[in-house]
C-alpha cells in the first residue's frame, strides 16, 4: 500500500504526484523515531510475519501523527 497526504482523492498518478511529499517524509520519520520502519517514499507492506501488536503500533503511531499534523 502507499500513503499519500493529499487535499484531493488519489485517483491517478498525477494526483499522487501532487500529494504533500514533505508531510510524507515527516510521517515516515515519526514512524521510524517511534519504532515503525517503512522505506520512505516506497510502497509499504504488511505480512503474516507481522503480529497484531505490530499492526496496532502502526495504527497508533499513524493516529498520533495525524493528531499532531492535521493542519492542511
Largest β-sheet summary: none
pLDDT below 50 for ≥5 consecutive residues: which ranges?
A: none
Q: Kindly estimate the percentage of residues that lie in beta strands according to DSSP.
A: under 5%
Average pLDDT taken over every residue: 89
Number of helices, where a helix is a run of at least 4 consecutive DSSP H or I residues: 3
The outline comes out as globular
Question: Number of DSSP strands?
Answer: 0
What distance separates the N and C termini? Answer: 22 Å
Helix proportion: 40-55%
Order of helices and strands: HHH
- Calculate Rg over CA atoms: 13 Å
Return the structural class.
mainly alpha
Concise account of the structure shown:
This protein has 72 residues and is mainly alpha-helical. The chain is built from 3 helices and no strands.
Detailed description of the structure:
By secondary structure, the chain is an all-alpha fold. Helices cover 50% and strands 0% of the residues. It has three helices and no strands. The two termini are 22 Å apart. The mean pLDDT is 89.
Write the layout of secondary structure elements.
Elements: H1 13-18, H2 21-33, H3 52-68
Key features of this structure:
single chain, 72 residues, globular
Amino acid at each position: 500500500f502507499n500513503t499519500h497526504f493529499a487535499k484531493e482523492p488519489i485517483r491517478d498518478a498525477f494526483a499522487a504526484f501532487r500529494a504533500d511529499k514533505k508531510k510524507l517524509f515527516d510521517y515516515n520519520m515519526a514512524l521510524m523515531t517511534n519504532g515503525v520502519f517503512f522505506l520512505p517514499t516506497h510502497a509499504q507492506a504488511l505480512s503474516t510475519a507481522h503480529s497484531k501488536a505490530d499492526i496496532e503500533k502502526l495504527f497508533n503511531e499513524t493516529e498520533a501523527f495525524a493528531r499532531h499534523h492535521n493542519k492542511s
